[in-house]
Amino acid sequence: MSGKTFFLDKDGDSIADKVLRRIRFDIITNTLKPGDRLRLERLRETYGASVSTLREILNRLAAEYFVVAEGNRGFGVAPISQRDLRDICEMRLLLECHALRRSIEVGSLDWEAQVVCCHHKLHTVESQLIGGDDTQVMKWVQYDWDFHHATVVACDRPVLSASHSNIFDRFMRYHLYVLDFRGRPAAEEHARLRDLVVGRDADGAVALLTSHVTAGMEHIIASGKIPA
User: Fold this and answer.
1) How far apart are CA 158 and CA 219, in angstroms?
2) Tens digits of per-residue pLDDT, 86-129?
3) What angle do CA 207, 210, 212 make, to 5 degrees?
4) In 3-state terms, what secondary structure has residue 31?
5) Model confidence over 37-80: pLDDT tens digits?
6) 5 has pLDDT over 50
């Protein structure tokens, strides 16, 4: 898997790291739903970590904007809203467009091959979705990350990459809340983005990425499932 590892534990992870990843995953996939109270005793039973470890984890997730600290009431899953989604979309574009330009500037031939490979997997799943197989939405979200990450992975800016990963997770949470694929237009945009990236057309790639991400945001809002 390229890039994102929140679906899997990594070798050498501490218990705290594994539990943090599991809780973040459950928030992103809405197993822990927006606004849910995060009671430490219940989390201890579910995730098998001590209360002190869980408190540390929840504070870290609060710093990542997946959790909100509610003072004496403890912690809760961060709520969702159209305003928050628009803010996340704007930040994603700010980070991803900058990283995309840098990757196009310095990326190697191996980087180009990775972009093409990740798009092939994404295209395969998108074809299944367009054909009516709605069970592939979760896999599509994963491959969508893999492809977009591949286009920017050559960017040699670790802080930028970490910030982009976080904001993409938060954007992905909304996709998984709605669980609806935008269809053939999204698939066609991905194919064009692949070609622009491999063709080293930075201006064209950034323009397409901007319209692509914005259209995805508007599609999520149009579902009617996201509160104002």
Assistant:
1) 31
2) 999 999 999 999 999 999 999 999 999 999 999 999 999 999 99
3) 105
4) coil
5) 999 999 999 999 999 999 999 999 999 999 999 877 789 999 99
6) no
**Distances, alpha carbon 151 to alpha carbons 86, 106, 133, 201, 203, in Å:** 23, 12, 27, 12, 14
Ramachandran class of 153: left when φ > 0, alpha when ψ lies in -120 to 50, beta otherwise: alpha
* Cα–Cα distance measured from residue 29 to residue 179, given in angstroms and rounded to the nearest whole number: 10
With the CA atoms of 10, 12, 14 and 19 taken in that order, what torsion angle do they form, in degrees rounded to the nearest 10?
10
129: CB partners within 8 A, 6+ apart: 136, 137, 140, 181, 183
Distance in angstroms (rounded) separating the CA atoms of residues 181 and 185: 10
Question: Phi-psi region for residue 147, left (φ > 0), alpha (ψ -120 to 50) or beta?
Answer: alpha
What is the rounded distance in angstroms from the CA atom of residue 40 to the CA atom of residue 175? 28
**Placement of tokens 């057309």 in the chain:** 201
Q: Which residues contact 98 (CB under 8 A, 6 or more apart)?
A: 155, 160
Domains of the chain (ranges, CATH numbers) = 15-77 (1.10.10.10), 82-222 (1.20.120.530)
CA distance 166 to 169: 5
Q: Are 140 and 126 in contact (CB under 8 A)?
A: yes
